[in-house]
Amino acid sequence: MELSLIPQIKHTDSNNFFLLSGPCAIEGEEMALRIAEKVVGLTDRLKIPYVFKGSFKKANRSRVDSFTGIGDEKALKILRKVSETFKVPTITDIHEPADAAMAAEYVDVLQIPAFLVRQTDLLVAAAETGKVVNLKKGQFMSPESMKHAVNKIQESGNKQVWITDRGTMFGYQDMIVDFRGIPTMKQYAPVVLDVTHSLQQPNQASGVTGGRPELINTMARAGIAAGVDGIFIETHFDPANAKSDGANMLALDRMEQLLTNLVKLRSTVNSLV
């Protein structure tokens, strides 16, 4: 699909990767606007097409007492305010078919969580909104099997679809990205690398997901070198106190150096025959 079809997206002629980035979950208006302002400034300077990411609710938590959101409509309205304030598109996760039409009133891209990507009713509902649909590759699925998820979107009359690789489960508490899958999945749709969740360490005994944020640079550079179309990175100005996924989010003040280096690397990759 053409990035330029997404409302308000910028820098589509820069030949850069595109970026999906923001906090794991919308915790409030001030934090969302603060993160968006910083990343919008960076991506404008570096000419990176940018979509602000924030989950309006978190249905996939390890424990019943984990943070799940501030209220669906309240969070979705904050996503709309981010879009209106900074003139950027937005993306959020949906978890059940009824979420699709509701979220589509507020955001530009609907994201299907990895553990739900085989749910036909959910995918069809997302496709029927006419929004771009970002399919997270299931941790339990091969790259080749994602063709069928893409087909569900396209056969529902929507050609606007991406695939995001977020690693494959290796044992009980680790994720591994097999970069051989990138060119395979690019046969079906543009491919994004989810740097954040591919570095998760799920299923910890404490019930709180761990992560390896010190490897964010390594993973992101490898993705660009492998030819991904986009990069997904969750970021927060205070990861240690974030209400969701803080263990593997990038500190907001480290985003500038990472993106600067990735743009340089992308330029080199583009120059290769």
TrEMBL record:
The Enzyme Commission number assigned here is 2.5.1.55
A GO CC annotation recorded here is: cytoplasm
The alphabetized UniProt keywords are: Cytoplasm, Transferase
Keyword Cytoplasm found: yes
**Family the entry assigns:** Belongs to the KdsA family.
Species whose genome carries this gene: Zeaxanthinibacter enoshimensis
Q: Which reaction does it catalyse?
A: D-arabinose 5-phosphate + phosphoenolpyruvate + H2O = 3-deoxy-alpha-D-manno-2-octulosonate-8-phosphate + phosphate
A molecular function annotated in GO for this UniProt entry is: 3-deoxy-8-phosphooctulonate synthase activity
Residues in DAHP synthetase I/KDSA domain copies = 8-268
Q: What is its main location?
A: cytoplasm
The protein here is known as 3-deoxy-8-phosphooctulonate synthase
Q: Which PANTHER family match?
A: PHOSPHO-2-DEHYDRO-3-DEOXYHEPTONATE ALDOLASE
* UniProt-annotated location(s): Cytoplasm
Q: Does the keyword Transferase apply?
A: yes
Kindly list the biological process annotations in GO that this record carries. lipopolysaccharide biosynthetic process
Metabolic or biological pathway: Carbohydrate biosynthesis; 3-deoxy-D-manno-octulosonate biosynthesis; 3-deoxy-D-manno-octulosonate from D-ribulose 5-phosphate: step 2/3; Bacterial outer membrane biogenesis; lipopolysaccharide biosynthesis
